[in-house]
Structure formats: C-alpha cells, structure tokens
C-alpha cells in the first residue's frame, strides 16, 4: 500500500499549529480561539464539509445527550477528586494547584472564569481536539490502524497542550482526553456530549477551587 506522505505532513503541520499557536502567539481575551476555529472552518470547507461533519449537528443537544454529559462530568469529577488526586498525593510530593486560585476573589470572578471555561475549555478545546484532530488522525493519518490509536494520540497531544501545568496536570489532561475521546465515539460522534461534559467538569472544578475544596477530602 502506497502512503501519500505530503498530505499527512500537511495534516501534521496543521495539528502542530493548532496546539502551538495559542501558546506562542498569546492573543488577548482568548482571541486565538477565533483564529484556530476559522482555520478549521476553512479546512473543512475545502473538503466540502462543515462543523456538522465532525459532530456539531443542530439536533445533537437532546435531553438524553444533556443527561449523558451531566453524568459523565460528575463521574470524571469524582474520579479526579477522590481517586486521581489522592493517589498522586500519596505516591509523590505534589505542589498545590494554584493556576485558578484567583477565582476565590469574588463570585463575579468565578462567574466570568466559568463562562470562559464553557467557551474555551468546553466548546473550543473539544472542537479542536475531539472534533478536528481526532477526526483527522482517524480518517486521514491512521485510517485502518484503529480508532483507539487516534484517541490515544489525540489525548497525549491534549495533555501536552496543557504543559503550562505541572506533570500531574498534564497526566490528568491525557486521562481526560481519553475519557472524552471515548465518550465522543461511544456517543456516535455527537460532539455536543463531550463539549457539555468537559464544560460541566471544568465548572465543578472551578467551584471546588473557589470553596478551597479542590483536591481535599474534607
């Protein structure tokens, strides 16, 4: 079987851009998301596709989808709070997570950060990683090599995307990527489900940080 190298290199370059651009060209007020989403839209249009083809169907937000998103978000929050964080704190010396401690300043700060979590953490990151990167890896790069490989590689990239956090934050992001990647496929590629699940999970985490309960069992 002859492998077309040039198209694969192009796809890899685009994926690298989506991961690196937000970090090395930090535009104000999360405006990097507009650039990256516009790029994805153009690339999809060139192939005669739309965001619908990667899972953003108009009828995707159903009561069942919302329920799955809520249950999965709560499940992941429980796993992080009562399993992952206690285990790593038992095995390693883990510095306190302080990246979002500023939300403790006021309810207004918490609400504004929560809104950003829905737009960036939920909507933007899931479109980029599960919707586009995982889609490209599965359909164009790995092809018959398996869906699981696409989910795994996408999850590792998702973890590396969070390199501003410590190694335990990166590992948590990899695990989260696996969780939402599998959820995406199990939901028949309904991208709204991991979007809502991710956003709800981030909201729960922010509330726990605001209450000074994140990573604490008391």
Provide an overview of this structure.
- There is one protein chain.
- By secondary structure, the protein is mainly alpha-helical.
- The chain has one domain (5-210).
- It is 70% helix and 0% strand.
- It has helices at 5-24, 32-46, 63-91, 107-141, 147-161, 167-186, 192-210.
- α3 (63-91) crosses α7 (192-210).
- The longest helix is centred in the middle third of the chain and has 35 residues, at 107-141.
- The radius of gyration is 18 Å and the shape is globular.
- The termini are far apart.
Reconstruct the topology from this structure.
Elements: H1 5-24, H2 32-46, H3 63-91, H4 107-141, H5 147-161, H6 167-186, H7 192-210
Low-confidence runs of at least 5 consecutive residues: none
Radius of gyration: 18 Å
- The tally of domains stands at 1
Tell me the total number of β-strands. Answer: 0
The succession of helices and strands, N to C, reads HHHHHHH
Measured distance between first and last alpha carbons: 58 Å
The number of helices is 7
> How large a portion of the residues is in β-strands, by DSSP E?
under 5%
The multimeric state of the shown protein is single chain
Task: Spell out the key features of this protein.
globular, 7 helices, 218 residues, mainly alpha
